[in-house]
Amino acid sequence: MVYKSKKINAIIVSITATAILLAGAVIIMIPLFWTFSMALKPDGEIYTSNFFPTSLAWDNFYRAVTSIDFFLYLGNTLKIVIPCLIGTVVTSSLVAYGFSRFNFRGKRTWFLILLATMMLPGQVTMIPSYLIYRQIGWVNTILPLVIPSFFGGGAYNIFLIRQFMAGIPKDFDEAARIDGAGYLTIYRKVILPMSKPVLTAVGIFTFMGTWNDFNTPLIYLYDSKKYTLALGLAFFKGLYTSKWNLLMAATVLVMLPILILFFFAQDYIIDGISISSGTKG
Amino acid sequence: MARKAASMKIKAGTTERRENRMGYAFIMPWILGLLMFTLIPMVFSAVLSLCEWDIVTGLSTIEFVGFDNYKGLWNDPKFWQSLKVTFKFCLITIPCYQVASLMIAFLLTLDIKGMKIFRVVYFLPSIIPTIASTMIWSRIFSQDGILNKALSIFGIKGPTWLTDKNTALYALMIMGIWGIGNTMIIYLSGLQSVSEELKEAARVDGAKGWQIFLKITIPMLSPTIFFNVVMAVIGSFQYFTQAYVMTEGGPLQSTLFYNLYLYQKAYKDYEMGYASAMAWVMFIIIMLLTLLVIKSSSLWVYYQNDDKI
Questions:
Q1: How high is the pLDDT of residue A150?
Q2: Among partner residues B107, B113, B266, which is closest to A20 by beta-carbon distance?
Q3: Closest residue by Cα to residue A201 from A147, A157, A256
Q4: Distance of alpha carbon B48 from alpha carbon B277, whole angstroms
Q5: pLDDT tier at A256 (50, 70, 90 boundaries)?
Q6: Which of A277, A155, A255, A22 shows the shortest CA–CA distance to B224?
Q7: What are phi and psi of A56, to 5 degrees?
Q8: How far does B40 lie from chain A, in Å, by closest CA?
Q9: Is the Cβ–Cβ distance between B138 and A238 less than 8 Å?
Q10: Please, are residues B241 and B130 in contact by the beta-carbon 8 Å criterion?
Q11: Which of B146, B49, B157 is nearest to A131 (CA)?
Q12: What is the percent of chain A with per-residue pLDDT over 70, rounded to a whole number?
């Protein structure tokens, strides 16, 4: 009898929980569906109250990419994203390897500094960096957006990779060393291949972070010919204030690569976030 | 014997030297980056905050003014307004977002069908580029937007959200709920790492579900709560894109976030010294708040083991 009431209780709990979660999920998805539906509305229906368009205006996407220099912005974005990706993955893994494998003097202090820089608000260094770049003529080029990633690729990424590498048993290094491998070879042939999951996560975070970045390009890129997609979208909003369907079509195009990436790599992303917060790993 | 010991010592010495050399060689890119992109700019920034500086004429006209910039901040009503907006945002959103994301995460840990799908749905908005979600919500908050349509079903005439000084900040807060997925994921993985044995032991001792949640789960989760709260405070002080694109700080400075005002001072008015002073005030506020959370954490944060790092 007691057992049975417990079972009924469990069912009630799980039904209530599912109902709450379902309601929340619907509320969360409405803005997204609405965006897609807006993007497909013909011009005449922008201000009508129907949720779904009566006919699907697929040419909105074509009109959106031709009313701004969409592909120019896409190219500009990739010119920043790709070098950042390479710089970050290569240098953050090198530094993480250094932290996880060698007992050098002052290691603890350096690691604490690394953690401390994760807390440092970027605004403190933003203005002087801008002035230095200005002095050496780098403003309005992609260099300020790209070069820093070749110097460690960010404390957060180093921390993430180090946590992972620390979990790889040192026996693998020893075995390789007995075979005569040097440290660089061990890094390249043993540690990097084993760190693939975390490197993938860091790569994804870097891609998303750079693709989504608005603040840094806004400060450094004045010339509209050099705009990234994020800047271009804001620029678009200023130009066509009433063409919501085209603006939403452009919005969909800007977020689509991120959505696709997310669906393929959600486990890496979710694990990466969990590790960095210290709740896992 | 002594010779052997001596040779071992030498050997140990060379290993140590090699460890030093190799360790520093590998972390060198980061040390250089730290110097060039953090330490030197930080020093420069501190000096700059004590100077008047005209960006057009460059370094030649830099003039030391002592604490004038900081005094200027003290007497600047817009500075106080930006602090007020940011703190108001913190005080309202942090409790709401944390409770909501913890609640969702908790529900997801109950034995529910389709947990993975729910997890994806709730997390999804937080990976959408900020600029894209800003566009989406600009439309949602417009007078004939979907939010006001939903309200009109209940017979409520919605405000003009973003152009009304009484609602603009709340509109941004509502929009923020959409992006709590990140926090939710962190809570979820924190909840999953709470020991089942401990909960089972409490259950055997006759504890009820909510007692287990309050007396075991929450204390075990407190480091995660701590992490999320600190990150949320930092996030509020760095809040920018949404306010810049959707409201430009208006109407009537009602959404003049700290970081937005800093940006305006630096890149619209070109008052680099003043803006640097603002950056340092922000840094100090964040440090103080973090210290406050850390200090108080001994009262409410429970660390199971300290061997994480």
A1: 95
A2: B107
A3: A157
A4: 8
A5: very high
A6: A277
A7: -85, 115
A8: 9
A9: no
A10: yes
A11: B49
A12: 96
Closest CA to A186 of B20, B33, B26: B26
Q: Nearest 10 degrees: CA dihedral of A226, A230, A236, A241?
A: -150
ipTM of the complex: 0.86
Per DSSP, the residues of B174-215 read: HHHHTTTHHHHHHHHHHHHTS-HHHHHHHHHTT--HHHHIII
Residues 10-49 of A with CB under 8 A from B: 10, 13-14, 17-18, 20-21, 24-25, 28-32, 34-35, 38, 47, 49
Query: Which residue reads 């590498």 in tokens?
Result: A165
Residue length of chain A:
281
Q: Taking the CB of residue B92, how many other CB atoms lie within 10 A of it?
A: 14
CB A229 within 8 A of CB A254: yes
Q: With an 8 Å Cβ cutoff, are B193 and A31 in contact? A: no
**Burial code of B94-131, b = ≥16 C-beta within 10 A, e = fewer?**
beebbebbbebbbbbeeeeeebeebbbbbbbbbbbbbb
Q: What is the CB neighbour count within 10 angstroms for residue A137?
A: 9
With cut-offs at 50, 70 and 90, classify the pLDDT of residue B307. very low
DSSP B52: E
Closest chain B C-alpha to A183 CA, distance in angstroms: 8
- The mean predicted confidence, pLDDT, of chain B is 85
pLDDT (0 to 100) of residue A3? 60
B208 touches chain A (CB under 8 A): no
How many other C-beta atoms can be found within 10 angstroms of the C-beta atom of residue A92? 29
**What single string gives the DSSP state of each residue in A236-259?**
HHHH-SS-HHHHHHHHHHHHHHHH
Q: By three-state DSSP, how is residue A105 classified?
A: coil
